[in-house]
Amino acid sequence: MKAEVQGEKEKIDQLKKTLNYHIDRYYNQDDPEITDYEYDMMMQELKKLEKENPQLITPDSPTQRVGGTAKREAGVLVRHRVPMLSLQDVFSKEEVDAFVEDMQRQFGEPEFVVETKIDGLSMALRYEEGILTTAITRGDGIIQGEDVTENARVISDVKTRLSHPIPYLEIRGEVYMTNAAFDRVNEKQELLGKKQFANPRNCAAGTLRQLDNRITKERGLSMFVFNIQETRGRTFETHTQGYEYLKSNGIRVIDNYKVCRSAEEVWEAIQEIGSRRGELGYDIDGAVVKLNNLAEREVVGATSKVPRWAVAYKYPPEEKESVLLDVELSVGRTGRITPTAVFEPVRLCGTSVSRATLHNQDFIDDLDICIGDTIVVYKSGEIIPKIKAVVKEKRPAGARRYQIPDTCPVCGAPAVREKDTADIKCTGSNCPSQMERHIINFVGRDAMDIKGFGANYIIELVRLGYLKDVADIFSLKEHREELIEQGIIGKEKNTDKLLNAIEASKTNQPDRLLTGLGIQGVGKATAKSLMEHFITLDGLAGASEEELEQVSDIGSVSAQAICSFFRDEKNRKIVERLKQAGVNMQQEVSRTDGVFAGLTFVVTGTLPTMGRAEAEEKIRSLGGKASGSVSKKTNYVLAGDNAGSKLTKAQQLGITVISESEFLEMAAKQK
Q1: Strand (E) positions, 273-384?
Q2: FRET partner for 607 with CA separation of 20 to 30 A, picked from 164, 196, 460, 577?
Q3: Is residue 97 packed enough to be buried (19+ CB in 10 Å), middle (13-18) or exposed (0-12)?
Q4: φ, ψ dihedrals at 265, nearest 5°
Q5: In the sheet where 374-379 sits, what is the strand order?
């Protein structure tokens, strides 16, 4: 292979690898790491390279297939009767004009429908004799998708019975979440101390796949229908005729679609949608142009990936200049200090914005941001504005690059940058901004596991001054009468129930206590290893960095963090108060003669009958070690459904992967 072609092949292979990773994050994990625009630009580059080197196109290329894979999270897998294809993306007026002109060459004076492209999750609905029988996600788009019928039934826009039934009807639409519904969900996530969703599309996708349709109903999903896939008992000549039939059945179709007859009219309709996208109560990621006549659609057909009778125009990021007035600092519940740019208000996508995150010091340094700078702010089909660049030629004289200070803006404690990360964190163990999160972590399932101690109680108890640190939890019983009188936790029964749960937690193994203390790098698996090595918390507290590094999985960074924690006078006092309160400080050592002695397991995915914690406890009870990450030291990976990246890494390292049944067979050999 010539050097030039080899170089193109390497570029294509790298792009395919990167795109496949982001496709998995978007479709299968509902957790994208890049914007749609960044993804689209990479896909365009791959298409260009493949067009120039057609001999390098392979069936597994992202340009040759649709979406992700079908998963079993929400139900059984269902075969597609009609493929749920993607749309061909275009990014310029010239490409739109070319599509229109191509259709005109074939059909003379065809009609086009221009409508919004909702940013959500595709779903098909099947009706038999007017009754909803099946709802199915796109899945792989060709062969099968996930059965989400029970969740679809609780979406208010989904009709379970048609007013004007026909023998069979299959329609396709987009399940999405309004901005208002998304804000409500994230507010609740924050209150409960849970991870917030990145955007409405991710939240809608995760919600539609929930096993419990009560959660789906509570989150308030919506749906627009944008196509009739298949009918029996009635035919339609045009797309808009089908829309009228659907509307007569109370089915919600795409808002404000427009019928056009020329390239000029099509472009005007696209521009009109773009001008009002910021006024909509939901996200869109483009405008769709499709042939109106269904017979003409049949003539042009489709490729294996996209229909030839439609294109999706993707809007470029909207950008405007503004002046940076200030940088505000906030301290998150983990202690991370986040800088936020405050700038002169500008209108983007129909809304006024005056703030955008600056992420971290690296981001500030890369853009060379100074107070008073003229900055370029943009939105890329998203809610949150971002800063793209600094207009250096407009910089005021004497401006200096902004530097996050080395003290916490809330409590004044030293702020340090974590090694190998871009995060600057407050080191104050009692910083008010961190305390709520710290206590929520302390009482959580992986730490002290105090049942019924919800985030809302913690937030209120911190606000009222009952909780200033984790040791205060064990003196709440001294305030029993006040708590009941104020109704913070509830009436007498609920208050006593929580106080009893707190008392019961004192007998926990101290590895749970150590996990709850929130020391950097000390999760539950590491805490278990430390406590089984040092036996008592006092023994751990008195260990040197060299002694700590003798423990498996403890490196120099974790050793330094542990020593630093126990040298801090405030932390020592908290531990002493916990000891005086009767919290267990001595570990029961796991047996070392079990069938799993000397073996390290990683549990990942959803097992058929066992919870992950149950499986890990069984491993430890039989002398093995349960680790949270896969490495060359791992002996077995116990994998269930949706195992994800840990399974992939195990396969790459050649580590033995076992099922739950194989695991139980191994455990049964214990004498």
Answers
A1: 284-291, 310-313, 318-331, 337-348, 351-357, 374-379
A2: 196
A3: middle
A4: -65, -40
A5: 351-357, 337-348, 318-331, 374-379, 386-390
19 and 58 Cβ atoms separated by less than 8 Å: no
Grouping H, G, I as helix, E, B as strand and the rest as coil, residue 623 is coil
Asked if residues 385 and 377 have their Cβ atoms less than 8 Å apart, the reply is yes
Residue 110 CA to residue 103 CA, distance in Å, equals 7
Distance CA 514, CA 68 (A): 40
Q: Is 117 a known active-site residue?
A: yes
One-letter amino acid at 113 equals V
Q: In the chain, what percentage of residues exceed pLDDT 70?
A: 92
CA dist., res. 609 & res. 268, Å (int): 57
Burial (CB < 10 A; 0-12, 13-18, 19+), residue 150, is middle
The count of other CB atoms within 10 Å of the CB of residue 371 is: 16
Single out the residue of 172, 130, 129, 175 nearest to residue 152, CA to CA.
175
**Exposed (0-12), middle (13-18) or buried (19+): which is 381, by Cβ within 10 Å?**
buried
Please, which residues bridge with residue 313 across strands?
90, 287
Q: What is the CA radius of gyration of the chain?
A: 29
Tokens representing residue 71 in the block = 């998963």
How many whole angstroms separate alpha carbon 139 and alpha carbon 237? 29
Query: pLDDT per residue over 125-166, tens digit each?
Result: 999 999 999 999 998 888 889 899 999 999 999 999 999 999
Model confidence pLDDT, tens digit, residues 431-453: 777 788 789 889 998 899 999 89
Single-letter code of the amino acid located at 228: I
Distance CA 98, CA 26 (A): 30
Concatenating the DSSP letter of every residue in 531-557 gives: HHHH-BHHHHHT--HHHHTTSTT--HH
Burial category of 170 from C-beta neighbours within 10 Å (exposed 0-12, middle 13-18, buried 19 and up): buried
Nearest partner of 545 among 533, 532, 535, 554, judged by Cα: 554
What is the C-alpha separation between 605 and 573, in angstroms, rounded? 40
180 burial type by CB count under 10 A (0-12 exposed, 13-18 middle, 19+ buried): exposed
Would the pTM of this model clear 0.85, i.e. be above it?
Answer: no
Quick one: pLDDT at residue 74? 44
Q: CB of 552 within 8 A of CB of 527? A: no
Q: Give the containing element (helix H, strand E) for 231.
A: strand 222-232
Question: In residues, how long is the chain?
Answer: 671
Beta-strand (E) ranges in 21-86?
A: 77-79
Pairing mode of beta strands 144-146, 386-390: unpaired
185 token code pair: 């969900």
Q: Contact, 393 vs 378, CB < 8 A?
A: no
Greatest extent of the chain over all pairs of C-alpha atoms, in Å: 88
Give 385's Cβ-side CA count (13 Å radius). 28
Q: Is 432 within 8 Å of 411 (Cβ atoms)?
A: yes
